[in-house]
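Section 3.1: Structural characterization of target chains.
Under the original work plan, the team committed to producing a structural model for every single-chain target entering the pipeline before any wet-lab resources were allocated. The record below documents one such target. The sequence was received from the expression subgroup and is listed exactly as submitted; it comprises 195 residues.
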Amino acid sequence: MGLGKKITDLRKEIKMSQEELAEKVGVARQTISKWELEETSPDIKQAQELSRIFNISLDELVGNEINNIVVEKISNTEKLAGMIIKILKGAGIVLIAMIVIEMVVLISAIIFYRPVSKNVDRIDTIERAELTCRVDNEKYVIEIESNGLFNCKNCEKEMNDDLEELIEFNDITATKNKIMEYFEDSKINCELKEY
């Protein structure tokens, strides 16, 4: 729509005659008529006054479709904000998953932690040994394992406590030798089976 038609439509919308509009803008009635017939156009000051009288923007008066541009920019901004939110949500989910995995690993490490012997560089390949010792016609079967497990089913409490103190974690040979020395001190022979 041309500027002249726009001026005519807006003037009629507010129920104003050409003379009344001319008086408000500060021009002759013929000038308004020439604008509406598109023989001439208002200068910038006159256009500003018309936009004020019609209560519209200067862009709307001269037909610049700024609304579409503004709507498009808002739409693009909303799309960008939506993408950023999706990226942040994804990053948040990944971060939470990483924290959960680290917590599971940490909790597992705490639950399944076993202390390491001071002789870390020496770990026997023997996984299990069994000592059978006879004391006063009493047979004692002592089972030891490289993971520090100790078992003497028919040992008396005092003997069991003494033997348990001799256990060396991850060093079955040292444990076996200490137990054999314990019984040798009592002049008792023990028979060893290694598995």
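The first strand starts at residue 128 and ends at 135.
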